[in-house]
Write a structure and sequence with these properties.
The chain has about 110 residues and is of the alpha+beta class. It is about 45% helix and about 20% strand. The strands form 2 sheets. A two-stranded antiparallel ribbon has the order 1-2. Strands 3-4 form a two-stranded antiparallel ribbon. The radius of gyration is 14 Å and the shape is globular. The C terminus is likely disordered.
Length: about 110
Amino acid sequence: MPAKITPQIAAHHEAGHAVIALVLDIPVRYASIEPRKNTWGRVAHGPAESRDLELILAVAGPQAQRRFAPRSNWFGGGDMVFVEKVIYGKRCKFTLTKNSRSQKKTVS
């Protein structure tokens, strides 16, 4: 059963973005886990110098979250939409299979 989103899961997710930004010498203006509109939290950081660094920043949140809550199924909608557009040029639909950790990709 997937874990529900808790403030602790959101905190680990946003901390993942903030920590990797600091490791990459990208200034962080603020981090918040206050839910707003369609988000559970946000991190405001300075610009990344390359698309590769932007991708690293985007996936750092979901990776930190999954280390804390491995069964969590929230991937950070905005993060994954950004990654999909960069990699595939359009939005994709990712689904997790019940009996494995693999992901199936379909381009829409």
